[in-house]
UniProtKB/TrEMBL annotation:
SUPFAM superfamilies: Nucleic acid-binding proteins, Translation proteins SH3-like domain. Its main location: plastid. GO terms for cellular component: chloroplast. Keywords: Chloroplast, Plastid, Signal. Belongs to the elongation factor P family. Gene3D superfamilies: 2.30.30.30, Nucleic acid-binding proteins (2.40.50.140). GO terms for molecular function: translation elongation factor activity. This is Translation elongation factor P/YeiP central domain-containing protein. It comes from Triparma laevis f. inornata. Residues 99-153 form the Translation elongation factor P/YeiP central domain.
Length: 166
């Protein structure tokens, strides 16, 4: 009885605050579709069945028209960039990518070799993925690898080293 009165008096005053875990909302990727209002730089979605990373975007609201989003995408398989205006009603599926921390071990011919920090497996990455950033990666450096369908498609330096992608 005392606990009920205490709870009643606290709720009537407004002093009771729900725990932070009550307000946790899962990301939109759990629900299966991503709308342009949920776009973030670096988000990876599927366009025509291929993983595509959002490089930059800008929301545009016209006076009488519907809102749209001008977006620049980068295809992670081909490396091509695409600029497209996306309507607010369009939705996209999230790309099923795996991110893993790895350490650069060595380079041989046109291939770079990384060791997965959790499984200690060796992963080979071609020069075309590393592209023109080879001067920034040194042996022993930690990177984050992005895999799609079992193949490394992209990688990024750890944030404390640099914010740019390899």
């Amino acid at each position: 009885m005392k606990a009920a009165l205490l709870l009643l008096s606290i709720s009537s005053v407004g002093a009771w605050i729900a725990p932070a875990s009550t307000f946790h909302r899962p990301s939109t990727t759990l629900y299966g579709s991503i709308a342009p209002k949920d776009f973030k730089t670096g988000l990876t979605i599927q366009i025509d069945g291929q993983p595509t990373k959002i490089v930059e975007f800008q929301h545009v609201k016209q006076a009488r028209g519907a809102a749209s989003t001008k977006t620049k995408f980068k295809n992670l398989i081909t490396g091509n960039t695409l600029q497209k205006t996306v309507q607010a009603s369009e939705t996209f599926d999230p790309a099923q990518i795996d991110r893993s921390d790895a350490q650069h071990t060595y380079r041989e011919n046109n291939n770079w070799f990384f060791m997965d920090s959790e499984t200690f497996d060796e992963k080979m990455v071609s020069d075309s993925i590393v592209d023109d950033r080879e001067d920034w990666i040194m042996e022993g450096m930690n990177v984050q690898l992005v895999e799609f369908e079992g193949k490394v498609r992209e990688g990024g330096l750890d944030e404390y080293q640099s914010g740019s992608a390899i």
